Write the structure tokens for this entry.
Amino acid sequence: QVELVESGGGLVQAGGSLRLSCAASGRTFSSYAMSWFRQAPGKERDFVAAIVWSGTNTYYADSVKGRFTISRDNAKNTAYLQMNSLKPEDTAVYYCAASYSTTVQVTGVAYWGQGTQVTVSS
């Protein structure tokens, strides 16, 4: 069992930056692949970024590639999403997710955080 708690969301102007954090409970954090998904109002939950358990490989949605960076600190049981050059279309609730293997699919996620709102104004 893993409990995930996101933080770092907020309101930012277009072109600005935010850093999301995902703190995980439990002693097995390093055994999980970690991902970030987002869901805008009236839309499906979409994949944003993923990182393997060791941190050596990362994956990104085309829409955020070059602007967002996912990372993790297994010693701190925490995953991060650094978001730069934010656009109004990045506005969404961002969810942290833990999975047994790296996934870009909602159905592959084992545990979800509660979500944190990111709003980008134009």
Summary: The radius of gyration is 13 Å.
